[in-house]
Design goal:
- This protein is mainly alpha-helical and 581 residues long.
- 43% of the residues lie in helices and 9% in strands.
- It has 18 helices and 16 strands.
- It has a three-stranded antiparallel beta sheet, with no helix packed on it. A three-stranded antiparallel beta sheet has the order 12-13-14, with no helix packed on it. A two-stranded antiparallel sheet has the order 1-2.
- Strand 1 and strand 2 form a beta hairpin.
- Helix 2 packs parallel to helix 17, helix 13 (399-409) packs antiparallel against helix 14 and helix 14 packs across helix 16.
- The longest helix is centred in the first third of the chain and has 25 residues, at 97-121.
- It starts with 5 loop residues before the first helix and ends with a strand.
- 50% of the residues are buried.
- Bound molecules: 1-deoxymannojirimycin (DMJ).
- 1-deoxymannojirimycin (DMJ) is lined by residues 188, 320-321, 484-485, 545, 549, 573-574.
- GO terms for molecular function: hydrolase activity.
- This is alpha-1,2-Mannosidase.
- Belongs to the glycosyl hydrolase 47 family.
- Pathway: Protein modification; protein glycosylation.
- Keywords: Disulfide bond, Glycosidase, Hydrolase, Signal.
Length: 581
């Protein structure tokens, strides 16, 4: 390469300064082209956002356990997958007054929460909705703002979108009071939020910020066996002393696949895909090795790559999005090479879930009403074998949507039936409690496999039921509601899949229950107990998923079905839509 002399360098420098003044720093972080088959339609003539790089460049950091050959992102033409959404047709009532009023009510709840976040917690992670202060559980990088960007876009709050997005692309991810970050949460909330905001707006600065964050998170894979730990500790990463965890939630390292795949698709960089493909290969290798072959336990030893250390099997807390991402990865890869592995794992795991984890509860309902199901937890005992505990969780309510998506894309009718019954189960449980909201964790009387399962008051009481709980429930072990989205998520997907308009009434009842029992002077708050009559106790917490997920799903169900069509987008576990390409 020729040496640039001083005299010849001056005009080049002048050009560089001019470019800097015109386009900010964007030009200094080139985004390489994605493979043709993943190119998105958007090309902005005049981007509005100006990217500011963080003060530490992780892409230049040393890899202590480098990789000889990278697995490449599958290319080639996509497979035409079956349609996910119901054929709504042109006669669909796009803006009937009732639905429109409901959509506006959701919008108002969002704006109320967002305005208080702006006023009291701008650029902080979370608003405290009772005290009108803030807290920073996720590194202090504006978790609520990053998480809410795509909702702002969908709700057509564009001016707020651009103000927030500019603040987000100015975030310095190298500045935090913490020594490290929660890898899973930062991936699903921050990286997922940035990628979907880019997919919707086409603003290149958002992709540059996503890439910069991706480079930081990628460092977590720099361990002896390339399995990431639960925390990304910055000094450990810089000094090459990271190790995978010995008992980490199985969902954590396994649900970075969508975000890293989308980042690889958009940047053309195989390293992001390679990182998560090694985790996929481990899951595939170990699927039959656990105490409940076909499923992975709630915690995994990623360091020794053993799935035999724990005997608990659930699709709720700790494990949920491991399963959720199996069909979603197939969709994100549009069935290309590599996607088959996700289909195979999904089919096998769901056979076990259907056989072992799902149960029909014994409840007082009209036998003519559509069937309902819940997902419990299986403990595999050394001698007695698997035992199903009829413990439901709000977190496992996402499963209705998962079965519906899997049922559609893989053409499995039984999964459509199961998905509907699971979604309806959660919707029904909301209505069963006096607040109109279901608890975080609860136990129900299980029906036997074959029996008719008619209401039996004596049996309910024998198993621990009493008048303080709705019939059929025997405890509310964790009676909180923390503004979670999973129940409305599945009802929304069921609506988009079936077009059944009565689901919007169910959603409206759920929304009213939530608003009534969580409203504070400034926004909405997690509550201590959904089983109470009258006033609820507020826990002064509003996690970012309230704006990113819960209100988004409510808004979408009352919007025309082509707003974020499930045939064009696939949503990550934080409800961030990624473009299907
Ligand atoms: C969100 O962060 C995600 O949906 C995650 O998968 C589970 N927990 C919360 C919402 O409940």
């Amino acid at each position: 390469m020729a040496i640039i002399r001083r005299s010849r360098a001056a005009p080049l420098l002048a050009l560089a300064v001019t470019l800097f003044l015109l386009f900010g720093l964007e030009w200094s972080v080139p985004v390489s082209g994605p493979p043709t088959s993943y190119r998105t339609a958007q090309k902005l003539k005049k981007p509005r956002l100006h990217f500011t790089p963080s003060s530490f460049n992780w892409s230049a950091a040393e890899q202590w356990y480098p990789i000889a050959t990278l697995a490449s992102l599958p290319t080639g033409p996509p497979t035409q997958l079956p349609k996910v959404q119901h054929e709504f047709g042109t006669h669909h009532p796009r803006k009937d007054p009732v639905t429109e009023a409901r959509r506006r009510a959701v919008l108002d709840a969002f704006v109320r929460s967002w305005e208080s976040y702006k006023r009291f917690a701008w650029l902080e992670d979370e608003l405290t909705p009772v005290g009108a202060e803030f807290k920073n559980p996720f590194g202090g990088w504006a978790a609520t703002m990053v998480d809410a960007l795509d909702t702002l876009w969908m709700m057509d709050l564009k001016e707020d979108f651009y103000k927030a997005a500019q603040a987000v692309v100015d975030i310095d991810f190298s500045k935090t009071d913490e020594s490290g970050v929660n890898l899973f949460e930062t991936t699903i909330r921050h990286l997922g939020g940035l990628l979907s905001a880019y997919d919707l707006s086409g603003e290149p600065a958002l992709l540059s910020k996503a890439r910069e964050l991706g480079d930081m998170l990628y460092m977590a894979f720099d361990t002896p066996n390339r399995m990431p730990g639960f925390w990304l500790t910055f000094e450990d990463a810089k000094n090459g002393i990271q190790k995978a965890g010995t008992s980490d939630p199985s969902a954590a390292p396994t649900s970075m696949s969508m975000e890293f795949t989308r980042l690889a698709q958009l940047t053309g960089e195989d390293k992001y895909y390679d990182a998560i493909d090694r985790v996929r290969a481990f899951l595939e290798r170990s699927q039959e090795d656990s105490h409940l072959p076909g499923m992975w336990p709630s915690q995994i030893n990623f360091a020794s790559q053993s799935v035999r250390n724990v005997n608990t099997f659930t699709i709720g807390a700790l494990a949920d999005s491991l399963y959720e991402y199996l069909p979603k990865m197939y969709v994100l890869l549009s069935g290309r090479a590599g996607a088959k592995s996700y289909e195979k794992m999904y089919r096998r795991a769901m056979d076990i879930v259907a056989d072992r984890l799902l149960f029909k509860p014994m409840v007082k309902r009209d036998p003519e009403d559509p069937p309902i199901l819940f997902a419990g937890t299986v403990y595999v005992h050394h001698e007695a074998g698997p035992h199903l505990n009829g413990e439901g969780q709000h977190l496992s309510c996402f499963a209705g949507g998962m079965f519906l998506l899997g049922g559609k894309v893989f053409g499995i009718k039984e999964h459509l039936r199961i998905g509907e019954a699971l979604a309806r189960g959660c919707g029904w449980a909301y209505g069963a409690f006096p607040t109109g909201v279901m608890p975080e964790i609860f136990n129900m009387v299980k029906c036997g496999a074959e029996e008719e399962c008619e209401w039996d008051e004596a049996r309910w009481k024998e198993e621990g039921g009493d008048a303080r709980l709705p019939p059929g429930f025997i405890n509310a072990r964790d009676p909180r509601y923390i503004l979670r989205p999973e129940a409305i998520e599945s009802i929304f997907i069921l609506y988009r899949v079936t077009g059944d308009e009565s689901l919007r009434d169910i959603a409206w009842d759920m929304f009213q229950g939530i608003v009534k029992s969580t409203k504070t002077q400034y926004a909405y708050s997690a509550i201590a107990d959904v089983t109470v009559q009258g006033e609820t106790r507020k826990d002064d917490s509003m996690e970012s998923f309230w704006l990113a997920e819960t209100l988004k799903y409510f808004y979408l169900i009352f919007s025309p079905p082509d707003l974020i069509s499930l045939d064009e987008y696939v949503l990550n576990t934080e409800a961030h839509p990624f473009k299907r390409t």
